[in-house]
Amino acid sequence: MSNSKYGYSKKVNTTFEKAIENTKEKLKEECFGVLTEIDIKATIKEKIDKNMDNYTILGACHPASAYESIQSEIEIGLMLPCNVIVYQKNDEVVVSAIKPSVAMGMIENKNLSAIATDIESRLKKVIDNL
Protein backbone atom coordinates (compact mmCIF):
# COMPACT_ATOMS: atom_id res chain seq x y z
CA MET A 1 0.00 0.00 0.00
CA SER A 2 1.19 3.52 -0.68
CA ASN A 3 0.27 6.66 1.13
CA SER A 4 -0.05 10.14 -0.39
CA LYS A 5 -0.99 13.45 1.19
CA TYR A 6 -4.64 12.87 0.46
CA GLY A 7 -5.18 9.14 -0.13
CA TYR A 8 -4.30 5.50 0.32
CA SER A 9 -3.48 3.38 -2.75
CA LYS A 10 -2.77 -0.24 -3.46
CA LYS A 11 -1.81 -2.12 -6.60
CA VAL A 12 -4.01 -5.18 -6.90
CA ASN A 13 -3.24 -8.37 -8.75
CA THR A 14 -6.51 -8.77 -10.64
CA THR A 15 -8.42 -7.43 -13.62
CA PHE A 16 -9.88 -3.94 -13.64
CA GLU A 17 -13.45 -5.28 -13.54
CA LYS A 18 -12.68 -7.68 -10.70
CA ALA A 19 -10.98 -4.87 -8.76
CA ILE A 20 -14.20 -2.82 -8.94
CA GLU A 21 -16.23 -5.83 -7.79
CA ASN A 22 -13.84 -6.61 -4.93
CA THR A 23 -13.71 -2.98 -3.84
CA LYS A 24 -17.51 -2.75 -3.68
CA GLU A 25 -17.61 -5.92 -1.59
CA LYS A 26 -14.97 -4.64 0.85
CA LEU A 27 -16.80 -1.30 1.12
CA LYS A 28 -20.01 -3.17 1.94
CA GLU A 29 -18.20 -5.12 4.67
CA GLU A 30 -17.31 -1.76 6.27
CA CYS A 31 -20.97 -0.57 6.02
CA PHE A 32 -20.47 1.70 3.01
CA GLY A 33 -22.88 1.93 0.13
CA VAL A 34 -21.82 2.96 -3.35
CA LEU A 35 -24.03 5.89 -4.36
CA THR A 36 -22.36 6.63 -7.67
CA GLU A 37 -20.17 4.82 -10.15
CA ILE A 38 -18.64 7.04 -12.80
CA ASP A 39 -16.85 5.48 -15.77
CA ILE A 40 -14.43 8.29 -16.57
CA LYS A 41 -12.96 6.47 -19.58
CA ALA A 42 -16.39 6.19 -21.24
CA THR A 43 -17.37 9.74 -20.33
CA ILE A 44 -14.16 11.21 -21.77
CA LYS A 45 -14.61 9.20 -24.97
CA GLU A 46 -18.22 10.30 -25.31
CA LYS A 47 -17.71 13.98 -24.46
CA ILE A 48 -14.36 14.84 -26.04
CA ASP A 49 -13.51 11.76 -28.11
CA LYS A 50 -10.25 11.07 -26.28
CA ASN A 51 -8.96 7.63 -25.30
CA MET A 52 -7.59 6.79 -21.90
CA ASP A 53 -6.99 3.79 -19.66
CA ASN A 54 -9.76 2.39 -17.46
CA TYR A 55 -10.69 4.78 -14.65
CA THR A 56 -13.77 4.55 -12.43
CA ILE A 57 -14.82 6.69 -9.47
CA LEU A 58 -16.95 5.07 -6.78
CA GLY A 59 -18.84 7.49 -4.54
CA ALA A 60 -18.90 5.64 -1.21
CA CYS A 61 -21.17 6.62 1.66
CA HIS A 62 -21.29 5.43 5.27
CA PRO A 63 -24.90 6.46 6.06
CA ALA A 64 -24.60 6.81 9.84
CA SER A 65 -21.51 8.99 9.50
CA ALA A 66 -23.06 11.04 6.71
CA TYR A 67 -26.07 11.70 8.93
CA GLU A 68 -23.88 12.72 11.89
CA SER A 69 -21.77 14.94 9.65
CA ILE A 70 -24.76 16.75 8.19
CA GLN A 71 -26.22 17.27 11.67
CA SER A 72 -22.93 18.78 12.77
CA GLU A 73 -22.21 20.89 9.66
CA ILE A 74 -25.11 21.46 7.27
CA GLU A 75 -22.95 22.22 4.21
CA ILE A 76 -20.69 19.18 4.63
CA GLY A 77 -22.55 17.63 1.71
CA LEU A 78 -20.18 19.62 -0.47
CA MET A 79 -17.49 17.15 0.65
CA LEU A 80 -19.55 13.96 0.37
CA PRO A 81 -19.43 11.14 -0.64
CA CYS A 82 -15.97 9.67 -0.04
CA ASN A 83 -14.35 8.92 -3.38
CA VAL A 84 -12.66 5.63 -4.09
CA ILE A 85 -11.00 5.23 -7.48
CA VAL A 86 -10.08 2.17 -9.47
CA TYR A 87 -7.78 2.76 -12.40
CA GLN A 88 -5.53 0.95 -14.79
CA LYS A 89 -2.18 2.22 -15.95
CA ASN A 90 -0.60 -0.07 -18.53
CA ASP A 91 -1.01 -3.53 -16.97
CA GLU A 92 -1.31 -2.37 -13.35
CA VAL A 93 -4.62 -1.95 -11.55
CA VAL A 94 -4.72 0.41 -8.58
CA VAL A 95 -7.40 1.15 -6.00
CA SER A 96 -7.21 4.41 -4.02
CA ALA A 97 -9.37 5.97 -1.30
CA ILE A 98 -9.46 9.53 -0.08
CA LYS A 99 -8.23 10.45 3.40
CA PRO A 100 -11.30 12.11 4.91
CA SER A 101 -9.18 13.69 7.65
CA VAL A 102 -7.43 15.77 5.00
CA ALA A 103 -10.65 16.74 3.23
CA MET A 104 -12.39 17.62 6.50
CA GLY A 105 -9.28 19.28 7.92
CA MET A 106 -10.18 22.59 6.33
CA ILE A 107 -13.37 22.72 8.39
CA GLU A 108 -12.85 23.68 12.01
CA ASN A 109 -15.37 21.36 13.64
CA LYS A 110 -14.24 18.85 16.29
CA ASN A 111 -17.26 16.62 15.68
CA LEU A 112 -16.33 16.27 12.02
CA SER A 113 -12.75 15.52 12.92
CA ALA A 114 -13.79 12.49 14.98
CA ILE A 115 -16.13 11.25 12.25
CA ALA A 116 -13.42 11.70 9.59
CA THR A 117 -10.93 9.72 11.67
CA ASP A 118 -13.37 6.81 11.95
CA ILE A 119 -14.23 6.85 8.25
CA GLU A 120 -10.57 7.08 7.32
CA SER A 121 -9.75 3.97 9.35
CA ARG A 122 -12.61 2.12 7.62
CA LEU A 123 -11.44 3.18 4.15
CA LYS A 124 -7.86 2.26 4.96
CA LYS A 125 -9.09 -1.19 6.03
CA VAL A 126 -10.92 -1.54 2.69
CA ILE A 127 -7.72 -0.80 0.78
CA ASP A 128 -5.59 -3.01 3.06
CA ASN A 129 -7.94 -5.95 2.55
CA LEU A 130 -7.97 -5.90 -1.23
CATH topology: TATA-Binding Protein
Strand order within the widest sheet? 1-2-6-5-4-3
Query: Which percent range describes the beta-strand content?
Result: 25-35%
Poorly predicted segments: none
The number of E-state strands comes to 6
Globular, elongated, flat, extended or rod-shaped: what is the shape?
globular
Radius of gyration: 15 Å
Question: So what's the CATH class?
Answer: Alpha Beta
Order of helix and strand elements from N to C terminus: EEHEHEHEEHH
How would you portray this structure in words?
The chain has 130 residues and is α+β, with helices and mostly antiparallel strands. It has one domain: 2-Layer Sandwich (TATA-Binding Protein), CATH 3.30.310.70. It is 44% helix and 28% strand. It is built from five helices and six strands; from the N terminus they run E-E-H-E-H-E-H-E-E-H-H. It has helices spanning 16-29, 40-48, 63-72, 100-104, 110-128; strands spanning 2-3, 7-12, 33-39, 55-61, 82-89, 92-98. The chain has a six-stranded antiparallel β-sheet. A hairpin with a 2-residue loop joins strand 5 (82-89) and strand 6 (92-98). The protein is globular and about 40 Å long. The N and C termini lie close together (10 Å). The model has no long low-confidence stretch (mean pLDDT 95).
